[in-house]
């Protein structure tokens, strides 16, 4: 989106088996979820067997927002790294941009170049829906990455994170901890990304629904636009408005840099905090044991690696080798897992830098 949203698995070896691992590695959004290979590290080189054997040469176009945010930067990095694994893939990225019209023009250039498949992370799914429809009408399959196009005719396959599941995971961590501590009527604050976006609304709904199972609700919430500066300002305002807080959920680890700075500046330590996305700096805070940040729930940018692998299979007319069906699924939702001090060592090498 033009608002520069940060949104957020990992395919090891054959894309079929790996997507199954990514979607099944964590079947629960409970806080104690088992870790799986999820993060921003480039995928390992695929084994030369099954779907990974060289096939028909294909050109994959790629368009995403500007990499001026840690999560988005990891998206671009992972897409390029995945494409480089295949001798039969020509990776054709266009200039990343946060301008809607510029992204539309860039995708138009890829359509004119007659690429074999397109991977698009739109700035705004609604506003780029028409250009995705044009690509599809031109016979170019579109892999819609993360921010969904509203018209299903606009894309062949969607792959992305579970925004509702992020909220559920965070809500269970917060709810269970407060319940175990015997806290009654807790003050729970929530720092969103951009409040008007469907992805943010899904996260907030998941959080509220999970808290409800413990008899809790959000006391106050405010959006921070997914930026460090706004995160700092919003956190400072919430800290000033609430002299005592029991728990905080911040939707995004990139804006969390500013949130943590405000907390440290205010000298507040009476509450615990849960982050979102799984950045390396957030994991280091968790690992230190001396921060209010105790956990983060994942939204892995390695979905971009998976998107490239899926685009290759679709362009070559292949299915996912570990599935019975002959075609790649229409939709793949990755699980959101909870990183705590107990499992952070497993995740840390895979985190993206904010």
- The count of helical stretches stands at 11
Average pLDDT value? Answer: 88
Q: What is the strand tally?
A: 12
At the first level of CATH, the class of the largest domain is Alpha Beta
CATH architecture level-2 label of the largest domain = 3-Layer(aba) Sandwich
Region (Disordered): 30-54
Pfam family, one: Peripla_BP_4
Biased composition (Low complexity): 30-50
Subcellular location: Cell envelope
Q: Can you describe this structure?
A:
This protein has 354 residues and is α/β, with parallel strands linked by helices. The protein has 2 domains: 15-161 and 301-334, Rossmann fold (3-Layer(aba) Sandwich); 163-298, Response regulator (Rossmann fold, 3-Layer(aba) Sandwich). It has 11 helices and 12 strands. The chain has a 6-stranded parallel β-sheet with strand order 2-1-3-4-5-11, sandwiched between helices. Strands 7-6-8-9-10-12 form a 6-stranded mixed β-sheet, with helices on both faces. Helix 8 links the parallel strand 8 and strand 9 (272-277). Helix 3 packs parallel to helix 4 and helix 5 (163-180) runs parallel beside helix 6 (198-212). The protein is elongated, with a radius of gyration of 20 Å. Mean pLDDT is 88; it is low at 1-48.
List keywords for this structure.
11 helices; Rossmann fold; alpha/beta; 2 domains; disordered N terminus; 6-stranded mixed beta sheet; 354 residues
């Amino acid at each position: 989106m033009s608002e520069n949203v940060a949104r957020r698995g990992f395919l090891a070896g054959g894309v079929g088996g790996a997507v199954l691992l990514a979607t099944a590695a964590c079947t629960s959004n409970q806080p104690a979820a088992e870790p799986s290979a999820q993060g921003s590290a480039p995928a390992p080189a695929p084994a030369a067997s099954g779907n990974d054997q060289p096939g028909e040469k294909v050109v994959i176009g790629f368009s995403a927002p500007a990499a001026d945010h840690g999560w988005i930067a990891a998206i671009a990095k992972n897409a390029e790294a995945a494409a480089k694994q295949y001798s039969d893939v020509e990776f054709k990225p266009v200039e990343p941009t946060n301008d809607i019209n510029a992204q539309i023009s860039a995708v138009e250039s890829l359509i004119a170049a007659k690429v074999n498949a397109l991977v698009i992370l739109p700035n705004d799914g609604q506003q780029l829906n028409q250009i995705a429809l044009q690509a599809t009408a031109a016979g170019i399959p579109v892999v819609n990455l993360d921010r969904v196009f509203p018209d299903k005719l606009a894309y062949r396959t969607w792959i992305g994170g579970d925004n509702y599941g992020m909220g559920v995971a965070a809500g269970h961590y917060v709810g269970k901890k407060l319940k175990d501590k015997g806290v009654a009527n807790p003050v729970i604050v929530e720092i969103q990304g951009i409040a008007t976006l469907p992805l943010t609304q899904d996260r907030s709904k998941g959080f509220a629904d999970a808290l409800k199972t413990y008899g809790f609700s959000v006391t106050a919430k405010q959006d921070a636009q997914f930026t460090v500066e706004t995160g700092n300002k919003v956190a400072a305002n919430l800290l000033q408005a609430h002299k005592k807080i029991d728990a905080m959920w911040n939707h995004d680890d990139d804006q969390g840099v500013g949130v943590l700075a405000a907390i440290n500046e205010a000298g507040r330590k009476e509450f615990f905090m849960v982050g979102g996305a799984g950045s390396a700096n957030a994991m280091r805070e968790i690992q230190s044991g001396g921060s209010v940040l105790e956990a983060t729930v994942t939204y892995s940018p390695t979905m971009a690696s998976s998107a490239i692998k899926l685009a290759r299979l679709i362009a070559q007319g292949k299915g996912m080798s570990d599935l019975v069906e002959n075609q790649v699924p229409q939709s793949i939702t990755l699980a959101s897992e909870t990183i705590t001090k107990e499992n952070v060592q497993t995740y840390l090498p895979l985190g993206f830098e904010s």
